[in-house]
Amino acid sequence: MKILHVSAECYPVAKAGGLGDVVGALPRFQAELGHDSGVVMPMYRTPFLYANDWLVVHKASTNLGHWWFEYTVIKEKTDKQGFSLYLLDINGLLDREKVYGYEDDTERFMAFQVAMVHWLNTWEQLPDVVHVHDHHTALIPFMMQHSYAYQRLAGVPSVLTIHNAQYQGSFGWDKTIYLPHWDSWKRGLLEWEGQINPLASGIKCAWKVTTVSQTYLQELRYMSNGLEAIFEYEQGKCIGILNGIDFKVWNPESDQYLKNHFTPETLEAGKKANKLLICNQFNLDPDKPLFIFIGRLVGEKGADLLPNVIRDAFRFIGRSMNFLILGSGEKQVEDELSHLKVISQGDYNTYIGYNETLSHIMYAGADFLLMPSRVEPCGLNQLYALRYGTIPVVRKTGGLKDTVIDIGNSGGYGINFEQVSVGDITHAIYRALELYRDIGTFRSLKKKIMQLDFSWNKSATDYIDLYQSFQ
Ligand code: ADP
Question: Is the pTM of this model over 0.85?
Answer without folding.
Answer: yes
